[in-house]
Amino acid sequence: MANVLIFNICLLLILSPVESCFIPNSLYVRVPQTIPAGYEITKVEVADCDTNSMQLTLKDPSFTIKRNGAIEALTPVSVATGGRTFSVWVQDNGGPESEMEVHLVHSTIQEREHTGPGFLKRSKRRWSPPPFNILENDKGPFPKDIEKIVSDSSGKYDVYYTFSGPGFNQHPERVFTLDRYTGMLTVHKSVDREEFPSFTLLCKVFDQKTNQETDSPLPINIIVDDVNDNAPTFKDQMQYTVLEKSNAGTMVGTVNATDRDLKGSLHVKIRYTLLTGLDLFTINPNTGVITTATNTLDREVKDKHMVTVQIKDMDGAVNGLSNTGTATITLGDINDNPPTFTKTSYDAMVKENENEKLILRIPVEDKDLINTPNWISKFIITKGNENGNFRIDTDPKTNEGLLYVSKPLDYEKTKNVKLEIMARNEAELSGTSAQWKSVPVDVHVTDVDEGPEFTAPTIRFTVKENTPNGTVIGSYTAVDPETKSSNGIMYYKVTDPASWINVDRNTGELKVANTIDRESPFVQNGIYNITIKAVDASSKTGTGTVIIVVEDVNDNVPTIPTSELVLCEKEGELGSVLVVAEDNDQSPFSSPFSFSLPYHQDGIWSVKRLNDTTATLQQTKELPTGIYNVPMDVTDLQGFGKTQTAKVRICQCRNGACLPKQNSVSLGALALLTMLLPLALLLLLCLLLAFFCVTKREKLELDDAGDSGGILLKSNTEAPGEEVDSSLITVPTVGYEPAVKGSVKGSMVNAGWLGNNSSSTIGAHATHDNGIYKAGVLTNDMQEYYGQYDSGYGTHHLNGGNLLGSGIGFDNRHLIQDSAFLHNWQTNGRYLYQKLAYLGTEGDGRYADDIIHSYGFEGAGSAAGSVGCCSDIGDNDNLDFLNTLGPKFKTLADTCTKT
User: Are residues 19 and 118 in the same domain?
Assistant: First the structure.
């Protein structure tokens, strides 16, 4: 039976423009679950077919198709739930086959008789319809019904339908509508399949009374069937290259094309065709590959070929759509043309003695591609250049051959040279049977008036060094090249660095002028060179070189180094040093050397040869550090030598080098004057201090503050102390001459007793030891006088050219209350008095050790500061500080006052 869907599709085909023998791509047909035999499934409608030659075929054995397009079942066919599919082909004489897929879809169709006899009533379609098909670019008329959609619930309810999706309320809008109450699906405009190949809309069904959904939502698929409305197009530029002379069948390139129509259909099956150039190229109709059709392609004849390519869909059918394009095929160059000369022979002319001069340009022609290895020429002199007088290069701009004379020619020897020159390319020949070509070149040498020439460019003479002056070593002469005579030629020296040779101006005879020394820096590897110039009557010149080979004689003895050889002292070991000798002579007048010690040596050294040039000098006895001059006899292989001295330093080493030596210092006159000046100032200051100390004798009563700790002096003060009235302390005078006020004697005791700081130049710094103040370091001379008195009561000594008095120290255990105190003053006073006389007259003698000695601070000072009576800073009348010195000092003051 005829299906409504088929009717609509056929109507679309009839109303729309069709191509020859066209059928849709697919067709969906609703059939019963079991199709009886003889049941007409549908009728295939075709368009634009030749009815006389049209053939309809199908391959499913259960069905047959009649000439009018009706498809019938041959046997009962059961259609499963998934459906059944087979294909139908149509073809006429006008074109290729077209294929259509027929989809049989199972549906529950109940046939009931109408109330009236002879009428059948179609049941409602089920709620799951197959996809619907529309034809792209349909021309209408619109609107056009597609199919009704019926829900199974419509038998129970009065329903209405709604749907949404692309094609209705989404882009593209208003393409489809659905009748709200009948469920008729309608299309309202044409659709381009290449833009919208299908649509899926969601349909819903509702009860008209309750507005409740009566069935599940239904997706509706609408497929847009393709029509061949797009011609194929070329995908890229068709530019190809193939080498000339390529064999037939060589691939040139591939034409790439595309089609927007439905993939896999005849609408996109492209056939490739060459419309021009068929004599040279072919193209594969299915793949688009272009190949050569001949091996005669010649770039030098035509380097580019333009061929027209046609692409047509429908596999090239007459109703297919097509496009054409031009393919450009460029022929690549091969070296199938050797360079050719423009002339059959060439002539050139050159003067004798010319050098590095261009004498000929040789042009060539080459048909191959310019500036490629197939075109660039290389020239080779194949004959006539056995002596290497010529060379040929290529001009990179013109590709010409440039012939140069590279070594001077002599007209008297060679008047004509015949050359043969071959031209070839950088690349080898291919694709041709041609060979490289050559051309003859005739070179003519012209004569010029030349200067004299020596018999040889260089001459060699062997001369022993130290040869006596005036000795003839040989002759070096020249001749005129034209006359072959030496008449009228004069000889002169050009170079003679050491002035060892004289040349006879008329004969060229060579004589020794000065002593020749092979060891001279002018001799290199035993060779000494001089240059001689020959001048003829026309003032033309020629030069030559005399090589003098200087033979060695034994005129140098082997020598040993004059510098010190370091021998590192090691406890319990006898050291040795290596002595290396040198000789400027060559073998056999040089090494191996012989080493020995003279017979009169003292037996504390021995020598043993280590190798040809070195000996080991061994210490045989323990020696103190110092420098030793060891005589050694060194002779060469011929026994020629002399006695030499090896200077050996024995020392304590670190890392193989002697430790630094303690250098002594000698004082000059200015330094001595500088040292004596403080002494003079010291004497003057002593007189002044003695004057003040003797004249002031007012007694002061000292209070015991109880917190002084018995400390009297701040022993390391570097500045002047406070002045104390000398009357506070009475110095014992037993054993002394009466002190004169202001004299050195009288002030000496006071100064030593009080002990000032170093800045006053009268007191050494005292060091504190267990509460007792002691003087600084004593000299050796002073210890014999008062070393036994260093018991905490004070010591006098002279240091650095100054009168130094250490202050008497007190602690909590000692007070000066007995005769020991007086004995100390007597002993020290005598010593200081005797020593004063030497300080001004003898700075370098036995008292030199007492000059310029510095004493460092080695303990803590007194909190009360200095109480020196002779300080030159501070208030001389302010003695308030004495009130804080403590009870011990008060006791001391009382004792001194009473004394």
Answer: yes
